[in-house]
Amino acid sequence: MVEEPLMSMFRKSLTTVALASALLGSAFVTPAAAADPNTCPKGKVCGWSGKNRTGTRTVLSVTPGCLPFKTAKSVSNQTSYRIEFWSITTGCGEGKRLVTQQPGTYSDNPGTVTGIEIYKK
């Protein structure tokens, strides 16, 4: 019968098209988890273990106050607050102030950050 080979060929073509679409579709989709690790998300404070935003990235949500900070060698302030990054000795505001960042800024080599102080606008 002519219909059976024709249907079989039609099914194979559909399968090939579906497989190609699935493969191509996944090649162009970038999942949110694959966001650029060298940037800091809006509304967050980030620190990287290496200079120039390299190494392990730490991302924090913050409110005004003083906090210890996981040791970082490059930092970013993507919040609406002004933030001072410190190399603290015994507590907040004690030690060496390394850099003050306004909202939306990065510092690729401020020194070794171990604490932050967050100020309201």
- What characteristic shape results from the CA principal axes? globular
Tally the structural domains: 2
> Mean pLDDT across all residues, rounded?
79
Share of residues in strands? 35-45%
Largest sheet: 4 strands, antiparallel
Q: What is the overall number of helices?
A: 1
Order of helices and strands: HEEEEEEEE
Helical fraction = 10-25%
Oligomer: single chain
Number of DSSP E strands: 8
The parts where pLDDT drops under 50 for at least 5 residues are 13-34
Can you say what the CATH homologous superfamily of the largest domain is?
Crystallins
Radius of gyration: 25 Å
CATH topological fold name of the largest domain: Gamma-B Crystallin, domain 1
Question: What is the CATH top level name of the largest domain?
Answer: Mainly Beta
Specify the CATH architecture of the largest domain: Sandwich
**First CA to last CA: what distance?**
80 Å
Protein described:
- This protein is of the alpha+beta class.
- The chain has two domains: about 5-30; about 35-120, Crystallins (Gamma-B Crystallin, domain 1), CATH 2.60.20.10.
- About 20% of the residues lie in helices and about 45% in strands.
- It has one helix and eight strands, in the order H-E-E-E-E-E-E-E-E.
- It has one helix at about 5-30, and strands at about 45-50, 55-60, 65-70, 75, 80-90, 95-100, 105, 115-120.
- It has a four-stranded antiparallel beta sheet, with no helix packed on it.
- A hairpin with a 3-residue loop joins strand 1 and strand 2 (about 55-60).
- The chain is globular, with a radius of gyration of 25 Å.
- The model is unreliable at about 15-35 (pLDDT under 50).
